[in-house]
């Protein structure tokens, strides 16, 4: 790949092939402009170069057809324990039971002001075990919600799973991984003290309503502290909306003053929020959500935590539906631990000679991901 000085890249130009940061993290794909805001952010973070096999040009040029015509080597891979359909079914069942547990936990707190630390910790131990064995299946679970459904329980479940995945990648000791999971599970408990119409609204909030929403980390902290939860968990919950640049809330803490649990929950719940449907917004695909996080590394999010997320889910996250350079559709089913740019993809409608789902390892020189599928394309596949 060639290196391009960031200061010399024309504003709103399009690289003909993906542009990378540090040769590893995708910043833009050919259909995404290299905006002035991105350029300024990179220079502010003291990055000086990006790498690409393409060149910047004034207008977007669709190279999909050319890519398809290139000679491509397809590297098939066999994922251990190929009974994928059964394991995915088990992951869906676990997710649904976990979701029901969280809903019941929230109801019990709302009606009785009760949360038992040991019970929650035991549930998180179970979550940690399932994540270690079936991470790649859990991340493919999709629970459809309408815009009018309360999203708090599902947000909690997904954020907790992602936080535990990040903590596992960072090799946290078991007791700290459990504490992290408990904090993630209860990071929004303070929201239950607020009227649902505040966070379920599809209209702009008034200054007074927004001020009320901003109190939820403090409410969560006070709830858990009153129930004698460990201080490390209480602090993680309190600080999960703090940001690296000090522009978060409620205390406007910067960088190293923010606890590790809070930094992890911040990234996990932000990624979930970006990729989930809300009453006031549509969901982004996982790739776009990941790029949004990467663009805010050092400003809002800790780079070590975001890197852990990327290496755990890949740039094209597990579960994402994609168009491949051979014009086939597939779904990302696992990461390539050596390179998060080129995950493992299951190709739709193709089987190996022994009847297993055909799965390939994408690569720079062989078959690679061109782009995520849009919503309408995914719906067609799922019909």
Written description of the protein model:
Strands 10-9-8-7-11 form a five-stranded antiparallel β-sheet, with no helix packed on it. Strands 1-5-3-4 form a four-stranded antiparallel β-sheet. Helix 6 (174-185) crosses helix 11 (260-274) and helix 9 (216-226) runs antiparallel to helix 10. It folds into three domains: 2-62, no CATH class; 84-313, Orthogonal Bundle (Hypothetical protein af1432); 321-382. Mean pLDDT is 89; it is low at 63-72. It is globular and about 60 Å long. The protein contains 14 helices and eleven strands. The protein has 383 residues and is α+β, with helices and mostly antiparallel strands.
Notable characteristics:
globular, alpha+beta, 383 residues, 44% helix, Hypothetical protein af1432, four-stranded antiparallel sheet, 14 helices
Evaluate the radius of gyration: 21 Å
How many domain modules? 3
CATH class term of the largest domain: Mainly Alpha
Helix-residue proportion: 40-55%
Major sheet size, sense and barrel closure: 5 strands, antiparallel
- Which runs of at least 5 residues are low in confidence (pLDDT < 50)? 63-72
Q: Which series of helices and strands comes N to C?
A: EEEEHEEHHHHHHHHHHHHEEEEEH
Given the structure, what is the number of helices? 14
Relevant CATH superfamily of the largest domain: Hypothetical protein af1432
Total E-strand runs: 11
Indicate the CATH topology of the largest domain: Hypothetical protein af1432
Oligomer: single chain
> What strand line-up does the widest sheet have?
10-9-8-7-11
Termini separation (Å)?
40 Å
Determine the mean pLDDT: 89
CATH architecture of the largest domain: Orthogonal Bundle
């Amino acid at each position: 790949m060639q290196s391009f000085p960031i200061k010399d890249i024309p504003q709103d130009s399009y690289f003909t092939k993906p542009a990378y940061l540090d040769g590893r993290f995708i910043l833009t794909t050919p259909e995404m402009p290299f905006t002035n805001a991105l350029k300024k952010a990179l220079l502010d973070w003291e990055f000086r170069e990006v790498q690409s096999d393409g060149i910047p040009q004034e207008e977007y040029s669709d190279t999909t057809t050319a890519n398809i015509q290139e000679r491509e080597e397809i590297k098939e891979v066999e994922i251990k324990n190929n009974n994928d359909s059964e394991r995915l079914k088990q992951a869906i069942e676990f997710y649904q039971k976990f979701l029901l547990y969280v809903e019941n936990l929230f109801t019990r707190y709302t009606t009785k002001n009760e949360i038992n630390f040991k019970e929650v910790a035991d549930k998180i131990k179970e979550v940690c075990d399932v994540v270690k064995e079936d991470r790649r299946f859990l991340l493919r679970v999709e629970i459809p919600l309408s815009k009018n459904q309360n999203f708090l329980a599902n947000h909690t479940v997904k954020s907790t799973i992602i936080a535990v995945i990040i903590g596992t990648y960072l090799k946290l000791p078991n007791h700290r991984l459990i504490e992290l999971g408990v904090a993630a599970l209860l990071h929004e408990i303070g929201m239950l003290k607020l009227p649902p119409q505040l966070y379920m609204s599809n209209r702009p909030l008034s200054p007074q309503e927004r001020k009320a929403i901003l109190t939820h980390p403090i409410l969560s902290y006070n709830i858990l502290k009153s129930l004698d939860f460990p201080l490390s968990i209480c602090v993680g919950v309190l600080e999960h909306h703090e940001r690296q640049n000090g522009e978060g809330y409620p205390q406007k803490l910067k960088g190293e003053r923010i606890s590790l649990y809070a930094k992890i929950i911040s990234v996990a719940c932000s990624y979930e929020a970006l990729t989930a449907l809300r009453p006031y917004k549509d969901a982004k695909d996982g790739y776009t959500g990941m790029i949004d996080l990467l663009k805010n590394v050092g400003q809002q999010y800790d780079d070590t935590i975001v890197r852990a997320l990327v290496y755990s889910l890949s740039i094209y996250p597990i579960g994402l539906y994609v168009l491949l350079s051979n014009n086939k559709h597939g779904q990302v089913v696992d990461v390539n631990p050596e390179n998060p740019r080129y995950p493992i993809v299951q190709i739709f409608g193709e089987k190996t000679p022994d009847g297993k789902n055909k799965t390939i390892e994408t690569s720079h020189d062989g078959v690679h991901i061109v782009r995520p599928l849009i919503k309408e394309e995914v719906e067609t596949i799922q019909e």
